[in-house]
Amino acid sequence: MNADKKMASVRVVKPSATMPAPQTQIAIAVDTAYIAATNGQSVGTGIHMMDNQLNMDSSGEGSLELSTVCPVGSLIGFSVYPMDMNSGDKVVITGFNVSQGNVFGNVGYPIQADPNDGSYWIGQAMNAGRQTYQIQVRVTVGTLRPTNYDIDWDPFITAR
Prior knowledge:
Elements: H1 3-8, E1 24-30, H2 32-37, E2 47-51, E3 67-70, E4 75-82, E5 90-100, E6 111-114, E7 117-124, E8 129-141, E9 147-153, E10 156-159
Parallel strand pairs: 1-4, 3-10
Antiparallel strand pairs: 1-2, 4-7, 5-8, 6-7, 8-9, 8-10
C-alpha cells in the first residue's frame, strides 16, 4: 500500500481550543498486527511516517527513518494511529527523547495536545540545526486480553 492510500484512512486530529494549529504535520501509521507478531522487539519495519514538508526537502517518507525539514519556529504536530482503524487496536505516543541536537530546545519539546488522548502531540522547532529524536509509542493489541507493546525509534528533524 502506498503512502497516498494510507493517508486516505488517516483521521484528522485537530488541535484543541487551547493549542494552536501546527504548520508541520507528521503522521505515523503503525502496523499493529506486525508489532504484535514480533512481540514489539527490534522494530525495523511496520512503522510508516509521513509529513507535509516535501517542499522543504523532507525525505524518508513511508519508513521509520523520516527526516523532516521545517522552518525555525514551526509548530510540529505528531499524529499516531493504527493502520487498520477497524481492528480495535490502539496506538498512543508516550514520550520523546532527544538523542542528538537541540532543534526542540527546552521550551519546544513536544507535549500531549489532549490529556485524554495520547495520539496527538505538538512540539516546536526552536533552534536551527539537525536533531535525532526518539519517539516512544505504546501499541495495545486485542480486546479480550489487551497486550501492550512499548516501541521506539529514531527519526530526524532539521530546522532552517
